[in-house]
Amino acid sequence: MRWLVGYLENFKSMSYFSRMKSSNYTSSYLHSTRRLPFDLSRCYQREFSAKMYILKALVVTLLPFAALAAKKPAADRFEQYHTKALSSTPLKLDDSLYGKLTTAPRDYSLVVLLTAMESRYGCQMCREFQPEWDLLSKSWMKGDTKGESRLLYGTLDFADGKGVFQSLGLQTAPVLVLFRPTTGPHAAADAGPIRYEFTNGLRSAELVHAWIISHLPDQPYPKVVRPINWVRTIAITTTILGTITFLSVAWPYVLPIAQNRNLWAAISLIAILLFTSGHMFNHIRKVPYVAGDGKGRISYFAGGFSNQYGLETQIIAGMYGLLSFATICLAIKVPRIQDPRIQQVAVLGWGAVIFIMYSFLLSVFRIKNGGYPFWLPPFA
């Protein structure tokens, strides 16, 4: 449109006769012919003036539309894709659409998840994070239907955007990038994308939401709203109601058992034996059950205090349990025996059990700590 206006101005500045005189052919022709009975110059001038007025009116009429058409792509790009995002979010991108949305100038923000969802790529984190990403984008769009935050969500799969992955030099996925506006009242000084790192594993929608708003202007933004899990709610409610019903019916039978001291003593002893024998150590370190000793035989006990086997824990727990049971019998059961001979035999028997098991415990301790000097027969 600018070139049309300039052309008309240049055309107006030159009169018909000045252009005619600038031509040698026209000048020689005028001198070689006789003067006509009527003046053609006035006819040409009137015709030219009429055409000029028509062209001026046409230009003045089309200028606003041309200016509007020039501004429309930059101004309506956000509105166009925000309308699409209201029905389907996040936006599914490809190489061309990614370039179109990230091209400056832009008066909106854009968050893009670069992922690889196909199973052949083996991106487990991509598949695990995708539900959180969908929840975040849908919650944002439901809370910002008017587009006041001027933020769009998009997803670019590796299958649809290999060119973008190569241009960014990405070797892993998922990658989250934020593009801030380059024009407008909230334009960022640095127009480059901001990258979110998944360094500590999977992140929830709430954590990503907090990261996004930390880079946006300070104003209220939509919150993440998780849908109600009706299956889980119904299952929990049914379980609670069933438990209450069972307790109300079985309470007369359950109460005597719950008040039994022997039951609680047994539960306490089992818990003590489990935790003192190293059961938690096995779960934390994922230790092997047994191992070889290098001579073709099985090693049941690992040397050193920082190592142990799964079977070793069970053996130690059994030793502790037998020692505890023998001690309890000597302290509680044996004094209640009425026959003196049987009582004496019980004392000697349980005493021998304690002596032998303690000797075995010391031998195991010497395996764990080779410098331990004490021992008891028969296990030296």
From TrEMBL:
Belongs to the OST3/OST6 family. GO terms for biological process: protein N-linked glycosylation via asparagine. It is a multi-pass membrane protein. Its main location: endoplasmic reticulum. Subunit of the oligosaccharyl transferase (OST) complex that catalyzes the initial transfer of a defined glycan (Glc(3)Man(9)GlcNAc(2) in eukaryotes) from the lipid carrier dolichol-pyrophosphate to an asparagine residue within an Asn-X-Ser/Thr consensus motif in nascent polypeptide chains, the first step in protein N-glycosylation. N-glycosylation occurs cotranslationally and the complex associates with the Sec61 complex at the channel-forming translocon complex that mediates protein translocation across the endoplasmic reticulum (ER). All subunits are required for a maximal enzyme activity. GO terms for cellular component: oligosaccharyltransferase complex. It is found in: Endoplasmic reticulum membrane. SUPFAM superfamilies: Thioredoxin-like. This is Magnesium transporter protein 1. Pfam families: OST3_OST6. InterPro entries: OligosaccharylTrfase_OST3/OST6 (IPR021149), Thioredoxin-like_sf (IPR036249). Keywords: Endoplasmic reticulum, Membrane, Signal, Transmembrane, Transmembrane helix. It comes from Diplocarpon rosae. The keyword Nucleotide-binding does not apply. The chain crosses the membrane at residues 230-251, 263-281, 315-334, 346-367.
